[in-house]
Design brief:
Elements lengths: L6 E8 L9 H12 L4 E8 L6 H12 L3 E7 L7 E7 L26 E3 L4 H10 L7 E3 L4 H18 L6 E7 L13 H17 L3
Parallel strand pairs: 1-2, 1-3, 3-7, 4-6
Antiparallel strand pairs: 4-5, 4-7
Helix pairs in contact: 1-5, 2-4, 3-5
Length: 210
């Protein structure tokens, strides 16, 4: 495969939030963008933890890079595994304020949008491949109702629009990563280990082409 034929993969993460000094999802996106991946053209973006701004900035990144695959990453501090998400729901219901101070409650993301949108990635294969490499991983049903869910819902909506207009197909989905030791997480989940897990996810997605 020539470089021109390589798929473009956009990986996004988030900035720190809720007073934390780090967010491993954003760190992984930066690192992957810097180091690249041998099987794709990899682009990384770090999004704000903002209901108002993150979906629009994600849409702008998709317009700019025209990716074949979008992998969104977010932090789930209390989880003990890397968790590809199955569903994004049409709901903003924030346990804590976002970085703009907004804390929506029981609000639709799109008033006329569908109740849910399903991931367009092979999430069971992703979880299995990561687990087979010795890194805990499992499928999660829902991306929650915070900003992570909002960007997943938005990206899947863009993918639907592309398909409906006859444009280039785009596969998209969300993966939550657990906290690193700096954030009080399991010592097993160093940034290196989480990056390795996401690299495996990328390879798995590229191997399961739609």
């Amino acid at each position: 495969m020539t470089p021109a034929a390589l798929s473009t993969v956009l990986v996004t993460g988030f900035e720190p939030f809720d007073g934390a000094a780090h967010n491993p999802s954003g760190d992984i996106a930066r690192r992957l963008a810097e180091l690249g991946h041998p099987d794709c053209q990899l682009v990384g973006e770090v999004l704000p933890v903002s209901f108002a701004h993150a979906p629009g900035l994600l849409a702008a990144a998709i317009d700019a890079h025209r990716p074949d695959v979008v992998i969104m990453l977010g932090l789930a501090e209390n989880r003990r595994a890397i968790t590809p998400e199955r569903v994004a729901i049409n709901l903003a219901d924030a346990r804590i304020p976002d970085n703009d101070g907004d804390q929506p409650t029981d609000a639709p993301l799109e008033p006329h949008g569908p109740a849910a949108r399903f991931a367009l990635l092979p999430i069971k294969h992703i979880a299995l491949a990561i687990a087979d490499a010795g890194i805990p991983a499992e499928v999660s049903l829902s991306a929650g109702s915070y900003v992570c869910n909002a960007v997943m819902y938005a990206a899947l909506g863009i993918a639907e629009q592309r398909e409906g207009s006859g444009g280039t197909p785009m596969r998209a989905g969300f993966i939550h990563v657990p906290a690193t030791p700096q954030l009080g997480g399991d010592p097993h989940f160093t940034l290196d280990e989480l990056e390795r897990g996401i690299r495996i996810a990328i390879t798995t997605i590229l191997d399961h082409r739609a």
